Amino acid sequence: MQPPERSPERDAAIDALLPNVPFDGWTFKALRLGLAAAALPEEDAELLFPDGTAGMIEAFCDLADRRMEEGAAGLDLAGLRTPGRVRAVLALRLRQNRPHKEAVRRAVSVLFLPRYAGVGAACTARTVDAIWHAAGDRSADFSWYTKRAILASIYSATLLYWLRDTSDDDAATLAFLDRRLAGVGRFGRMRAETGRLFRRLTPLRLRETG
User: Fold this and answer.
1) Whether 137 contacts 72, CB under 8 Å
2) 174-177 long-range CB contacts below 8 Å, 24 or more apart?
3) Which element (helix H / strand E) includes 199?
4) 47: Cβ contacts below 8 Å, ≥ 6 apart
5) Is residue 75 a contact partner of residue 88, using CB atoms and an 8 Å limit?
6) What pTM, to 2 d.p., does this model score?
7) 180: which DSSP letter?
8) How far is the C-alpha of 107 from the C-alpha of 37, rounded, in Å?
9) Is 80 exceeded by the pLDDT of residue 67?
10) Residue 205, pLDDT above cutoff 50
11) Rg of the chain (C-alpha set)
12) Is 43 exposed, middle or buried (0-12, 13-18, 19+ CB in 10 A)?
């Protein structure tokens, strides 16, 4: 899935926008205030994000994905099994986004609206792919789809839990995540079950040509 347009100017605009989102939402008003505070041209707001709210949120999610992958490159994941690597990457993402929790909350509220469902699905899919990539997954077979479907459910539930979490250092959220990742063979069992279901639901002629 193709990411949204990327540029240093758009990244800088998102960083400038974020402090205003808790007060003015994902709006051009918040963006212009941010650009002005950062000594950037206010008139560039519509040029940078012609899709308005949807474009701003999508750019923010993409920027968070990239920063997560950059940060994960500095983690020591070599000695961890898959659930441990995924947990470490997700914990990093939550830590990186903690200063912008209210902005994330507002973004999630927007993406729950029917008109933004497609944007929300695309953002989730790209984030899940980025988490797996940061965790060292390079699969290209059927498991590529099943692992991402499983993680999309875990990530979405964890994000919603995190938005309600008032504990220090996301402790309650990480405990919740641990429960979701519990069991050394969880991923393998769920992939196998999903694969069997997929084969039962797929017409024979498609399986034979796949």
Assistant:
1) no
2) 174/87, 174/91, 174/94, 177/87, 177/90, 177/91
3) helix 186-201
4) none
5) yes
6) 0.85
7) H
8) 22
9) yes
10) no
11) 19
12) exposed
